[in-house]
Design brief:
Helix content is 45%, strand content 16%. It is built from six helices and five strands. A five-stranded parallel β-sheet has the order 2-1-3-5-4, sandwiched between helices. The radius of gyration is 14 Å and the shape is globular. The model has no long low-confidence stretch (mean pLDDT 96). The structure holds D-ribose.
């Protein structure tokens, strides 16, 4: 069963500071933060961290994942390779809301070199306060899952 109050956070070396700022921000809202690092600025590889966070969401250990790299793109691509993950890169609050409402995203990716801290926190809030609308969107999400099954 999915832990409804747990969010995994991960990043590559580029985004450690913003990741920690987001961790404090959402912890203050009552979320249980599972921050899986890294903690040093030593150069690392975003696929490793995207996959690690995605596995915790796919297994049900965490309800959501928030991942970051320089652009948000590479770590998002890695996360989306894990079955059951729907991760969108968001650089605006409208997309962050819609990716939950229409796509039932379970992970959010941010680019530390794209958005500033204030916008990043607003994007996180938009993502976490929106809900999946279901209805016609449910069938489309199921179609994504069918594609996922076919790819494996
Ligand atoms: C690291 O320099 C950078 O390539 C990475 O953070 C990310 O932007 C990749 O998508």
């Amino acid at each position: 069963m999915t832990a409804t109050n747990r969010i995994v956070l991960s990043s590559d070396h580029a985004a450690i500071d913003l990741r920690q700022t987001i961790a404090s921000h959402i912890a203050a809202q009552g979320w249980v933060v599972v921050d899986i690092g890294p903690t040093t600025a030593e150069s690392t590889h975003y696929p490793t961290h995207g996959e690690a966070a995605a596995q915790l969401v796919a297994s049900g250990d965490c309800r959501f994942g928030i991942i970051l790299c320089g652009t948000g793109q590479g770590i998002m691509m890695a996360a989306n390779k894990i079955k059951g993950i729907r991760c969108g890169v968001c650089g605006d609050t409208f997309s962050a809301r819609m990716v939950r409402q229409h796509n039932d995203a379970n992970m959010l990716s941010l680019g530390v070199r794209v958005v500033g801290e204030g916008l990043a926190l607003d994007i996180v809030d938009a993502f976490l306060t929106a809900s999946f609308e279901g209805g016609r969107h449910a069938m489309r999400v199921e179609m994504i899952e069918t594609l996922e099954g076919r790819a494996r």
